[in-house]
Amino acid sequence: MSSSAFESLNTMFYMLYIMKRKELFAIRGLDEEIYVKFREKAITKRLRVGEALTLAMKDWLEKEENRKKVNPNNLLKIKPFDWGPGTEKTSREIDEILYGGKR
Fold first, then answer.
1. Widest pairwise Cα distance in the chain
2. pLDDT, tens digit, for every residue of 18-31?
């Protein structure tokens, strides 16, 4: 495919085709620039795009699974601590910066 034909593809409907076991998967909404960089990186690592994509998806899924294991109740275990001398008004100063004016 010539570069001008490749560039003329509409990135919104750009589709990545992956052949595996005679199955064809189409991915819509794939950013063309990201795909090109991803493909180049896969080639430098001597991977097929499908293999690299599978690795990327596995990595993402593992990260998502680990993220779910975070217990929000751990925030309740945080104990206050002294920041040292001269920080007595730090909370008020932060409120003034964030919310404006003195309260």
1. 69
2. 444 556 778 888 89
SS3 label, residue 101: coil
Helix (H) or strand (E) holding 59: helix 49-68
Q: Which two tokens stand for residue 19?
A: 């052949």
* The two structure tokens encoding residue 41: 């990186």
Any bridge partners for residue 16, and if so which? 27
Is residue 3 within a helix (H) or strand (E), and if so which, with residue range? Answer: helix 3-7
- One DSSP character per residue, 25-56 reads EEETT--HHHHHHHHHHHHHTT--HHHHHHHH
Q: pLDDT, tens digit, for every residue of 48-92?
A: 988 999 999 999 999 888 876 778 888 888 888 888 998 988 988
